[in-house]
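User: Run a structure prediction on this.
Assistant: Running it now.
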Amino acid sequence: MTAGPVRITLCIVSWNVRDDLLACVASLVDAASGLQAEVIVVDNASTDDTIEVLEDRFPRVHVIRNPSNRGFAAATNQAMAEASGEYLLLLNPDTILPPGALPELLGVADANPEAGIVAPKLLNPDGSLQQSCRRFPTPAAALFRHTLLGRLFPRNRWAAEYVMAEWGHDAVREVDWASGACLLIRRDLYEAIGPLDEGFFWGSEDVDYCYRAHVAGRQVLYTPQPAVVHKIGASTNQAPVRTILNFHRSMARLYRKHMAHSVLDFAVITFGVALRAGLLIASWWLRDLCARVLSLVRGRG
């Protein structure tokens, strides 16, 4: 990192993910080589020693402590409000950026001023592709994505179209939306459309923001370089049932906000999303019960 005007502000929200957060921040030293960058971490009332260790190891990181868990969108907005960078990067704490990633990402953004948002390729820790850029969701995609119907019909076209499975994710391309795990936002777009919608506690806030960018006449651009490693689920796996509920509340809000055109649409969307959430929670409870019973039986064997 160098002196001068801040080119990029990295906005990170944490909740009980100390080890992942420390690894993420450590990767930023080489990832931001040659740039004037600032890092803002908003902690949503972690109960581990995340912040104490972070402040000890990385004293230049600006930390905002929340007394309660405000959710991802609200906490991100706190960071964005204090950011001074020309670009704002939303970054999950369970990501690792390779050396030189930020200059490379900014190079793509600078070369494409019509893009209000630029998203890099995301990889799983084993190096496999995460399908992190997608088409806008539809009710049909929701029915077949991560559901029993999807498992019964794994080759269905609705889920495949949603994740752009027909494409290799190997070229720069305009997309509908991209994952908020690593999302570069140009400041002029932020100033034009405002912060994230805090009605989304967790989930779909990235879809909503990209939708608003399109409405404002700006592109959302995907780039295969740099490639960022994203672990997925470091925070949400700590509370699976609550995560399912929050995700589906956000899903319902997204559909109602942008896709419901009548009272009937509103009612059908609300019922469908509630049913989907209930089935997923029941499925999780059943799997958890079977795992407990199996563990008990093995313990007696």
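The chain has a mean pLDDT of 88.
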